[in-house]
Amino acid sequence: MVTIRDVAREAGVSVASASRSLNGLANVRPATRDRVLDAARRLREAAAEPPATNTPDTPSGAATAPRGALAPQQVAAAVRSHTPAETIATVDAGAHMLAVMPLWEVDQPGRLLISSGLATMGFALPAAIAAALCAPGQPVVAFTGDGGLGMTLAEIETAVRLRLRIVVIVFNDATLSLIKIKQRAVGQGGAEAVDYGPVSFAGVAAAMGAAAAAVGTEPELIAALMAALRRDGPTVIDAAVDPACYPAVMELTRGDAGRRAVPGLTQAGGDPTR
Questions:
Q1: Which residues share a beta bridge with 241?
Q2: Most Cβ neighbours (<10 Å): which of 9, 46, 154, 187?
């Protein structure tokens, strides 16, 4: 698998320049911007397809999800398409970030908050609380992995106590997925190091006084999101996602994006020689 260092050496592309490209900022090379935007287009096409059950014929790492679980890019695209343009999104560090960042389009600064190169796990929920306090009345959505939320669970009570309108989307796969992907290539990171038992974040949130829902399909996700946006106070949406989707998403966003099709993630139609 191509790493971010490989991409940087080959094309001079950094995570920071990709972020600037996606946010429409200046001082980005045209070739870099085109590469990043093309990756975002491919992710949108993949997110528009319904998830399929993995079969023996499904290539390893293909971005499809089994029944009862969502593909990560499907979660990001569904939430973006069902939230107002002025919504503020906060994004935690982790594999889910690779799906959310290309798909969350904004038209003004300050509407997409991420720790960027600091890669701070546990960032999204406290950042969402700050955003809700600084911009009362604007919808706020926090995207976090189960690892990141596990580090900041107590802040759910803070959001409840302050009656903040925050929607927390938890990508729940019981795995430190990005660490698992990176360690597996060098023979490290066994299950005892990066996997953990199932946790009901919906149950934990409800115990703290927040509204909560556990979802495993797109209709369930959208219904829970619509209810959360109408609610005064925080909501935690515990989304079951398939971690097998992440290697293909990482390959597309950090690998040779736009140069070849990724089985299970892209459809025929482009130039296969690019």
A1: 70
A2: 46
Structural domain includes residue 261: no
Q: Are 156 and 196 in contact (CB under 8 A)?
A: no
Tell me the pTM: 0.69
In a domain, 170, yes or no: yes
Domain tally, the chain: 1
DSSP state of 83: S
The string of pLDDT tens digits covering residues 45-81 is 555 554 433 333 333 333 445 556 888 889 999 999 9
194 CB neighbour count, 10 Å cutoff: 21
The β-bridge relationship of strands 166-172 and 235-240 is parallel
What is the chain's Cα-based Rg? Answer: 18
| Residue 146 φ then ψ, to 5° | -65, -30
| Dihedral (CA of 48, 54, 55, 57) sign | positive
Question: Is 11 within 8 Å of 35 (Cβ atoms)?
Answer: yes
Query: Which residues neighbour 17 within 8 Å (Cβ) at sequence distance 6 or greater?
Result: 28, 29, 32
Instruction: Determine the structural domain holding residue 79 and report its residue range.
Output: 4-52+62-254
Q: Residues 146, 68, 142, 205: is their CA dihedral positive or negative?
A: negative
| C-alpha–C-alpha distance, residues 11 and 17, integer Å | 11
Distance (Å, whole) CA 171 – CA 206: 17
Q: What's the rounded Cα separation, in Å, for the pair 214 and 200?
A: 8
88-91/112-114 β-pairing: parallel
Each residue's pLDDT tens digit, 183-224: 766 667 666 677 788 889 999 999 999 999 999 999 999 999
